Amino acid sequence: MRFSRCHGSHLRLLSHLTSRRTMSQFASVLIPGRGEIKVPTGLFINNEFVRSVDSQEVIDAINPFTEEKICSVVAASAKDIDVAVAAARTAFKTTWGKNVTGFERSRLMNRLADLIEQNAQELAELESLNNGKPVKIARDFDIGDSVQVGWADKIAGESLEVDNKTKFAFTRHEPVGVCGKVAPALAVGCTIVMKPSELTPLTALKLSELAKEAGFPPGVLNTVPSLGSVGGAALAAHPDVDKVAFTGSTVTGRKIMEAAAKSNLKKVSLELGGKSPHLVFESCDMDQAANWAALGICYNSGQDCTAGSRVYVQDSIHDKFVELLVSKVKELVFGDGLDEKSSGGPVVNQTQYDKIWNYIESGKQEGAKAVLGGNKRPGKGFFVDPTIFTDIRPHMKIVKEEIFGPVLSVGRFKTEEEAIQLANDTTYGLGAGLHSNDANQCMRVASALEAGTINQYNLLSNNVPFGGKKQSVRRELGSYALQEFKAVHWNFGEKLAWPL
Amino acid sequence: MPGTFIHKFDTPVYKGTVNVSTGLFINNKFVDGSDTTTIEYVNSTGKLITTISEATAKDVDIAVKAAQEAYDTTWGLNTSGAERGDLLNKLATIMDAARDELAALEAMDNGKTFNWAKNVDVDFAIQVVKYYAGWADKIHGQTLETDEKKLTYTRHEPIGVVVSHILLASRWIMLISCQGTNNSIYDVCLEDCSCSCNGQYRRSEGDFHPLSIKSDIHTVVQPSEFTPLTALRMCSMIQEAGIPPGVVNVVTGYGNTVGAAISSHMDILKIAFTGSTIVGRKIMEAAARSNLKPVTLELGGKNPNIIFNDADLDNAVEWTSFGIYWNHGAACCAGSRIFVQSGIYDKFLEKFTEKSKAIRIGDPFGENIDEGPMSSEAQFNRIMGYIESGKTDGATVHTGGNRRGSEGYFIEPTIFTNVKADMKIVKEEIFGPVSVVVKFEDEDDVVRQANDTFYGLAAGVFSQDIDRAIRTAHRIQAGTVWVNCYNHFKPQVPFGGYRQSGIGRELGSYTAVKAVHINLGQRLS
C-alpha cells in the first residue's frame, strides 16, 4: 500500500440519506483477529465520501486468500472525474497551490504521516485483506515508505549570473496544477485526483479519511476508484488535468501518453514494467546474494515492477548457488497474509493468477527446467508458489516478458562481458542487482548496465535489495537538472537476515 | 555523389562565396539518399536555389546505426568530458570564423536580415556552443546519505541515440535531420545527454541556432520550402572540428517520411522537437506507440507583454518592438499580445506606432534593413489571412495591415487595437509582425487576461515597482518571464513552456520551472 503509488479518485458530496437506495458510503469489514472496521466506500471528493453523480456501477474488492468479496465501492464515471477535477482546480486556486506556504504543506503532511503511522497495523491488515500481501510486509516495508514531507519547505530555484551590471535571472519552481500522483505532488502544492487500482481500492479510501482528519482543505486530495478504461481514460484525456503520473503496465502507459498528446499535452510521468536482472559473480558472498535474490523475486509475490526476475550466475558457482537459492526460497511461508508467519501471500486476483500460470506452462513447454515450484496448490486462494526455472534460453517468454509473479529465471554466464550482454538484452531498464566482492568489477559493471528508459534506473549494487531504499533517491524536486540518471545503491555492510 | 551548392554573394552587406555540400551527412561523409531522390530547395523569394539529397526511412536507419556505433565506441562513455569540451570549443572557433557566411545562408534561407542573423542568431548559437563546451567536463551526480551501511549515488549518464532539432553540447550524439514539412523544417539531432542542463541548451537554440533555422511552422501546406543549408554547412564544420564520425548525422527529408520514421524509431531514445503544437502532438503519439522514448517539446505561444503605468516608457517601447518584430514575429516567444495600463496607454501606443512605422522593410541583404520577407508564400498567405480576419471581426487596424510592394512576401508591421478576447488574432499564434494592443485598468484583470490562453511559453512585464513586477511575474502562467526586457535570451537560463506550449526542462518532476529575467539597466536602442 505504497501511498505514493496510489492513484485516486474522488467522491461527490451527497448525504448518506440520499444513498440509501444503492449503498451506504461506508462498509463494515471484518478483519479476523481484530473485529469489524469501518471502511469508506464512496468517492472521496471535497473531503466527503459521496455517490456517483450519474452511475450505479460498483467495484467489488475481493480477498485473494478466500476469493470472497470484502465489500463494494462506488465506481466513478467520467462525469465524476469531471467533478473531482473541478474540486481539485478550485482548491489549487484558493486553498492550496501558491496560496499556502511550504511550512503549512509540510505541517499537514507530517500530521498525515503521523496518522498513517498510528494506523499502520490497521491499514496493513486492510491492505493484506485486499491484495494478499502479508501484514508484516505491508506494515514494515510499504507504509514506512509512504510520505514525502521534508521537501515541502525546501523548494528552491536558482539565481543565475548573467551580467552583473545589467541583468539578473532566477528560476522559480512552481506547482504544476492538478495532478494524478500523491506525495511529491502534495509537497510542492499540486492538488490531486487519485484513481487507485481497481483491484485494491480500500486502503486508498481509508487514507483519504486520514487526509481529511489531518486537516487538508477540501479538494486538495480527491480519491475516485474507477475502472481504468473509465476513470483512468477520463483523467488521461482531461483538458484540465496538468499532469498524470502513472505506475503500471507498459500497455496502459502508452495509452496515457497518447491521450495526453491528443488532449492538452499534459505532462506525463510513467513508471512502467521491468525484467530486472541480478548478476551473481563468483567472488560474491553467496549466502547474502541468495538472500537478496530470493527477496528480489518473492517480495510482494513478485508483483513489483522492480522484481528481480532474471538471475544470471557465473558458471563456477552456478549449481551451488541455485541449490542455496532454492533452499532459501523454500524457507518462506506463502500463506494467509494476516498470519505473522507468512512472508508471502496469494497474488492479487484471478486474472493475474491465470496469467502467471500461463507463463509457468510456457516455461515448461519451451524447455526450461523448474527446480522449484511449478505445481498448483489445491484449495482456495490465488496462490502461486515461488517457481525457479533453470536451463533458460534468451528467446523464452519467461526470460523476455514481465510476469509480475514469483517466477524466477536463472541463467549462467562465463565472463563479465557475457553477463553485461545478458543483463542488457531487454527492452526494459528499470532495475538491476549486482553481487560481487570485487570493487573494480562493481564499478565497471555498474557503469555498463544500461537503462534506456524513462524511468530512473535503480542499480542495486553488491548485495542490495530491490525495492529497499529506492524511494530515497527519488528524482529530485529542487533541480530541473535531473532528467535521467542512474542511482547506485552500494551495500557494504547491511546483512539480510533470512527468512524474513 | 551528392552535389555542391556554390553561391557568390555580392551584396552591400556581404560579399563572399559559400560552398555547401547538399548530401545527407552520415558518419562524417556527405552521401546520396538511399533512393537517390532530391528535394528542390526554394528560398524565401520563391526562387529555386539548388537541390538537396532526400532522406527516407531507410536513411534514418542507417544514420541511427552510425550514431549507435559512435556512441558505443568513440563517444558516449568512451570519451572524457575534457575531450568533448575541446571538440565543442573547436567547433565554436570555426563557427566564429564563419559568422558572415552562416548569417548569409540563414538570411537567404528564411528572409531575416543579414544583420540580425549575424548579430543575434549566429552570435547566440556560438555563445551556446561555448557555454555547453564548458559543461562537458562538469557533469556531476550526487551522493545521497541513506544510512552508514550503504552508499547511494546518482550518475548522470548519456541516454544514447537521441534526436533533437538543435545542436547540443556535452556528450551528445546528434542525428540532425532537416525535415521539410512543407514550409517548415525541423532538424532533429541525436543527442546523448543527461547533462544537468538539458533544458538550458535545448531552449536556447530553438530559433537561434543556424542548425535549427526557422523551426516553428504550424501547418504544412506546401511541400517544398525548407532551409537546410546552414545545417549542412555546419556539418563540414563538425568534420573540421574533429568530432568523430557518427556523432552528428544529418538526414534531410520530409516530415511524413523521415519525421515519422524518427518519431516511431525503436532505437532512438529521446526526441527534442521545436515547432508547432500539431506536429508536437504527433511526435508524442508516435513515441507512445513505439518505444516510449521521452520527448521534449518546445511548441507555440501567444505571449502576453504587460506594460504598467509606472513603466519606463521609452525602455518599454524599445523592448516591446524587439519582442514582436524580432525575426518579423516568426518566433514562438514573440510578444504578440501587448497589454497597456490606461494611464500610459495613449503615450505608449503613439511611441510604439512610431517605432513600428520606422521599421525599414526590404532585401535582407540591403543596407539598413530591419525586416525582410516572410519565409514562404504559405506563411505570407497565412499571416495575411489573420490580418483579414482581424478586420472582419471588427478590430481596428491601428497601423500597417497591408502587403508591402507587389514582389516578395513583405508584410507591414501591423498593430490592431479595439480587439475582443474571442477574436482569432487574439487567440491564435500568427507567427508574423502582427500584434494586438489591449488597454487594461488593474493588475488582477490583466493577469486574468494574460493567462486566458492555452499556451504558456513566455511573457513580459514592464514596471518600475519591484513588488508589482515580481508579483505579476509569479502570477503569469509561463515558462519564461522577462521583466523590463523581452526576447532577451541567455544560454544559462532554462526555457520551456507551461500548458500546451510544451513539455520539457524537467520531465518527471512536479514542479514547473519558471525563469525570470530582470533587466537592471541594459538600454536598448
UniProtKB/TrEMBL annotation, chain A:
<protein>
    <submittedName>
        <fullName>Aldehyde dehydrogenase</fullName>
    </submittedName>
</protein>
<feature type="coiled-coil region">
    <location>
        <begin position="105"/>
        <end position="132"/>
    </location>
</feature>
<dbReference type="GO" id="GO:0016620">
    <property type="term" value="F:oxidoreductase activity, acting on the aldehyde or oxo group of donors, NAD or NADP as acceptor"/>
</dbReference>
<dbReference type="InterPro" id="IPR016162">
    <property type="entry name" value="Ald_DH_N"/>
</dbReference>
<comment type="similarity">
    <text>Belongs to the aldehyde dehydrogenase family.</text>
</comment>
<keyword id="KW-0175">Coiled coil</keyword>
<feature type="active site">
    <location>
        <position position="271"/>
    </location>
</feature>
<dbReference type="InterPro" id="IPR016163">
    <property type="entry name" value="Ald_DH_C"/>
</dbReference>
<keyword id="KW-0560">Oxidoreductase</keyword>
<dbReference type="InterPro" id="IPR029510">
    <property type="entry name" value="Ald_DH_CS_GLU"/>
</dbReference>
<dbReference type="InterPro" id="IPR016161">
    <property type="entry name" value="Ald_DH/histidinol_DH"/>
</dbReference>
<feature type="domain" description="Aldehyde dehydrogenase">
    <location>
        <begin position="55"/>
        <end position="488"/>
    </location>
</feature>
<dbReference type="InterPro" id="IPR015590">
    <property type="entry name" value="Aldehyde_DH_dom"/>
</dbReference>
<dbReference type="Pfam" id="PF00171">
    <property type="entry name" value="Aldedh"/>
</dbReference>
TrEMBL record, chain B:
<feature type="active site">
    <location>
        <position position="298"/>
    </location>
</feature>
<comment type="similarity">
    <text>Belongs to the aldehyde dehydrogenase family.</text>
</comment>
<dbReference type="GO" id="GO:0019413">
    <property type="term" value="P:acetate biosynthetic process"/>
</dbReference>
<protein>
    <submittedName>
        <fullName>Aldehyde dehydrogenase</fullName>
    </submittedName>
</protein>
<dbReference type="InterPro" id="IPR029510">
    <property type="entry name" value="Ald_DH_CS_GLU"/>
</dbReference>
<keyword id="KW-0560">Oxidoreductase</keyword>
<dbReference type="InterPro" id="IPR016162">
    <property type="entry name" value="Ald_DH_N"/>
</dbReference>
<feature type="domain" description="Aldehyde dehydrogenase">
    <location>
        <begin position="219"/>
        <end position="511"/>
    </location>
</feature>
<feature type="domain" description="Aldehyde dehydrogenase">
    <location>
        <begin position="31"/>
        <end position="163"/>
    </location>
</feature>
<dbReference type="InterPro" id="IPR016163">
    <property type="entry name" value="Ald_DH_C"/>
</dbReference>
<dbReference type="InterPro" id="IPR016161">
    <property type="entry name" value="Ald_DH/histidinol_DH"/>
</dbReference>
<dbReference type="Pfam" id="PF00171">
    <property type="entry name" value="Aldedh"/>
</dbReference>
<dbReference type="GO" id="GO:0016620">
    <property type="term" value="F:oxidoreductase activity, acting on the aldehyde or oxo group of donors, NAD or NADP as acceptor"/>
</dbReference>
<dbReference type="InterPro" id="IPR015590">
    <property type="entry name" value="Aldehyde_DH_dom"/>
</dbReference>
